[in-house]
Amino acid sequence: MLLVAKGIAKAYQTGEKPFKVLEGVDLEVREGEIVALLGRSGGGKSTLLRILAGLIPPDAGEVRFRGRPVRGPVEGVAMVFQTFALFPWLSVLENVALGLEARGVPRAERLQKAREAIALIGLKGFEDALPKELSGGMKQRVGFARALVVEPLVLLLDEAFSALDPLTAEGLRGDFLDLWLAGRLSTQAVLLVTHNIEEAVALADRALILQGSPARVGREIPIPLPHPRDPSDPPFRALVEEIYMALTEREVVERHLEEELVRLPEAPVERLTSLAEAMAAHGGRVDLPLLAEEEGLEVDELFPLLEALELLGFARMERGDVELTPAGRAWAEATSKERQVMFAEHLLRRVPLMSRLHRALVERKAVPEERVLEWLRDHLPEPEAKRVLGVIREWGRFAGLLGYDDRARTLFLPEGEASGQSPG
Amino acid sequence: MPEYALRTAFRMGLALVFSILFTFLYAPLAAKTRLEALLVALLDILQSVPILGFLAATVGALAALFPGRALGFELAAVFAVFTSQAWNMAFSFYQSLKTLPRELDEAARLFRLTPWQRFLRLEVPFALPGLVYNAMMSMSGGWFFVVASEAIAVGKTEVDLPGIGSYMAVALARGDLAALGLAALAMLAVILLYDQLLFRPLVAWSQRFKYEERPGQEPARSWVLDLLRRTRAVRRLAEAGTTWALEALLRAERRFQVSQSPSLPTWPLYLLLGLFAAWGLWELLAALRPLGLAQVGQAFYLGFLTLLRVLGIMLLATLVWVPVGILLGQRPRLAARVQALLQLLAAFPANLLYPFFAYLLLRFHLSLEVFSAFLMVLGTQWYILFNAMAGSMAVPEDLKEAAKSLGLRGWALWRRLLLPASFPYLVTGLITASGGTWNASIVAEVVAWRGHTLEATGLGSYIARWTLEEGQGPHLLLGIAVMSLYVVALNRLLWRRLYRLAEERFRL
Q: Is the dihedral of CA B365, B370, B373, B374 positive or negative?
């Protein structure tokens, strides 16, 4: 294992309250691989990279490079910067030789090595130019040469292609990948921070997705495609799609977690099923006003229902249209027994409140209603808390995930649920 | 005469060298150690003390060190010029160290540059353009002081300090107009040579180190630099020389690699400094005690009169030069030419001209009480004009076009665009000019012509008078202390607020 980070946390002081950027970040970079680190802009990617590079200290957690703790920049890790970070008063050759100079390599030798690195990255003939004479793409080539000349074991790329126009970026990416694949670099691993999904799929062997706020590594997606990779290939597209989903879907859930996931919409299960059936009858995609008319409801009466379907992953709303997901269609067309099982599945997976409650029930068999209400009151005003309790009770009972004792005002685990069977 | 001029020029050069050494020592200490707060505060105070007041004290002290010889005065003159440059330059370097671009700092740390390497490859190059510009500007003030210090030496002792200033003082005593004219010409020649042979090439060369290039700025050019660059032998020599020096420094660093020294607690140092300051204050009070409260009140009253002159003339100069500067700035080609001329004017020590004015005042029976204010601003008004021009030239083209397309013209255009956009520059100019004006008050409130001495009531004349009296240290001390107080108060109450306003509201 070349580079390992464990439990990294970092907060920034903004105004009075510290703003947590990273929390509980774990990651590993192994020999022979290119790892892409993806996340929303401002989501802590660059901060994490700087912590890995030893440029800024984490608030908690530890970074280890070849087993040794990192407390400041270490020999063996080099970085290519998004903004190039070339010293404008030094020539290309001097810029590239900078890292060698720092190590005390004699002048003749370091100039020789710098020349070789410059030739390797395709800048021969520009040794004596000043950075300002170069185009963006050439500047970044200098950035690469400067990083590669110190023969780092781990190369960190901080949005290294983002400041370039697409064509230039692709050229440089291709050249770098060729060097990497041909084994002409002494570098053993590359960590690439990017917001460009296609770039990640084109280069990396696996992608790590930073999610949430504060961010942590939420998902790891392997990219087992052989090189050369063709961006129009279906497997390539599928991976781009998957990463895209991972980046966006989670974000929606995250937002819901704060408010909507607790504030469940007022949607009796019966109405949900009949609505789903009606939509399936329309071929799975209907426009809202039409649907409202068919169901004999006002459009705004429809909203809690649609919200619920969306929350459960049975429908998607899109610009005034509503569409059943494959799961939603299956649900609408299922028998009532299957319907119950599917509903339970979706409820547990997509409604954190339900999964929490369910866990508590599995553990203790019964939970006083007041306890749930108390927890809800922490997040919602009183009437809302009561209403939501009613909704989760109704949904849970329909799904067979919980029972309710009206007199003891206690929620309990139904018979047989623990063994995975639905009650009759 | 040429020898006198050379001597003056040499003093300037020596002071510049000392200033650079001081800058490279002081600024990194201030920027990188835990003494930062203290050192910056100290610099701030040193910048506020009227240097000419200092001068009298140092001349006395250094002359006493080397009795009967010119060396003491020589050192005092160099020191005077040094004090007019060193603080500015150290502050400029400190600011550069504090505003290193984050990415370059990160790259330097990531590639683990050694401390020397970081200093030579990153910090000095980044600071160079600002440092060179600052040195050039302080040099303008420096001429003023070298002349004044040479003249003071004449006033006090038999020992003469050959230079343009002393030549001038002698000519003045004799009332020799031709000699005065010659001295002025010699001064102009020295300034021109310094400008063409030293600063212009330096400015042009330092452009290589500009971190960000602003579009639309004319690159500075210098025929001397062009010539040097075209001469292959010189270029080779320069390259080989710098390479050798750099390598030697880096090698030396490696040989004497110092292990990270354990960080010492700073409180003993602070304690020591605190004791020192307390002792200094005690001594000051002890020295001032025999003067009595009445004398202190008198000094504050005189200071108030000088303050009125300073503020009044600054207001007047602003009203005159800001519109002119802004108008000129809107005509960049003309402005570029005027700028070169202005630099010369600003560098020309205004105190050389005072005798002419004394002659005029005597001739037309005018009161120095009012006109001393004009003398004070003679050398410093150019900062206002200079900065107004720079501000006006820096108004972004797109804003000008937007204003034009909206039909803004006349007063509306000035009020909505030109004045606000150049405001930060104007404030900078005013601050510089104000500092210079206080300093000038010490020589401008007393002027002489052929044995006739004109004197205005004010703190400047108070200091000047006691400078010339032997054994009147306490009075002089009081004068300087009170003037420093006024300057500091004005800085805190007015200039700093304006500066903050400029930074927050009007910085583009």
A: negative
Residues of chain A with pLDDT below 70 are 13-18, 41-42, 213, 248-261, 289, 298-301, 319-320, 380-381, 416-424
Can you give the pLDDT at residue A298?
63
B424 within some domain: yes
Least CA distance to B103: which residue of chain A?
A85
DSSP output for B448-508: EETTEEEE-SSHHHHHHHHHHSTT-HHHHHHHHHHHHHHHHHHIIIIIHHHHHHIIIII--
Contact criterion met (CB below 8 Å) for A225 and A36: no
Residue B482: CATH number of its domain = 1.10.3720.10
Question: 64-93 in A: which are within 8 Å (CB) of B?
Answer: 72-73, 75, 77-79, 81, 83-90
Q: Given this structure, which CATH class describes domain A3-254?
A: alpha beta
Tokens of A378: 């922490």
Compare all CA atoms of chain B with the CA of A56 and give the residue at the minimum distance. B106
Look-up: residue for tokens 């703790």?
A69
> Is residue B458, in this structure, part of any structural domain at all?
yes
B454 and B334 belong to one structural domain: yes
| Domain-terminating residue out of B152, B181, B211 | B211
Residues of B in contact with A77 (CB under 8 A): 110
> Are residue B159 and residue B298 in the same domain, yes or no?
no
Please identify, in words, the CATH class of the domain defined by A260-333. mainly alpha
Query: What pTM, to 2 d.p., does this model score?
Result: 0.71
Residue that is written with structure tokens 């006691």 in the block = B466
Contacts of A211 (CB under 8 A, 6+ apart): A39, A217, A218, A219, A246, A247, A250, A251, A254
* A134 contacts: CB under 8 Å, gap ≥ 6: A92, A126, A142
A-contacting residues of B 134-193, CB under 8 Å? Answer: none
Chain B residues with CB inside 8 Å of A53's CB?
110
Same domain, B297 and B188: no
Examine residue B285 and state whether it is found in any structural domain, yes or no. Answer: no
Separation CA A369–CA A406 (nearest Å): 10
Domain count for chain B: 2
- Helix, strand, coil percentages (3-state) for chain B, rounded to 5, are 85, 0, 15
Exposed / middle / buried, residue B219 (Cβ in 10 Å: 0-12, 13-18, 19+): exposed
Q: What share of chain A is helix, strand, coil (3-state, %, to 5)?
A: 45, 20, 35
Separation of alpha carbons B324 and B392, rounded Å: 10
CA distance to B44, B49, B425, B499, per residue, from B40 (Å): 6, 15, 23, 18
Q: Give the range of the structural domain holding residue B82, as residue numbers without chain letter.
A: 1-211
Nearest Cα residue in chain A from B116 = A102
* Rg (chain B; Cα; Å): 24
In a shared domain, residues B203 and B300: no
- Please indicate, yes or no, if residue B59 is contained in any of the structural domains: yes
Q: Name the domain boundary from B211, B246, B276.
A: B211
Phi, psi of A405 (to 5 degrees): -100, 110
pLDDT by residue for chain B (508 residues), tens digit each?
778 888 888 888 899 999 999 999 988 888 887 777 778 878 877 777 777 776 666 766 776 777 666 677 788 888 888 888 888 888 889 888 888 888 999 999 999 988 888 998 999 999 888 888 888 878 877 888 777 777 765 455 555 677 887 787 777 777 777 887 888 888 888 888 888 888 888 888 888 887 765 545 556 677 777 887 777 777 788 888 888 888 888 777 777 655 555 455 667 777 887 888 888 888 778 777 777 788 888 889 999 999 999 999 999 999 999 999 999 888 878 887 887 787 777 778 887 778 778 888 888 888 888 888 888 888 788 888 888 888 888 888 888 888 888 888 888 888 888 888 888 888 888 888 888 888 888 888 888 777 778 888 888 888 877 776 655 667 878 888 888 888 888 888 888 888 888 877 776 6
B200 in the same domain as B332: no
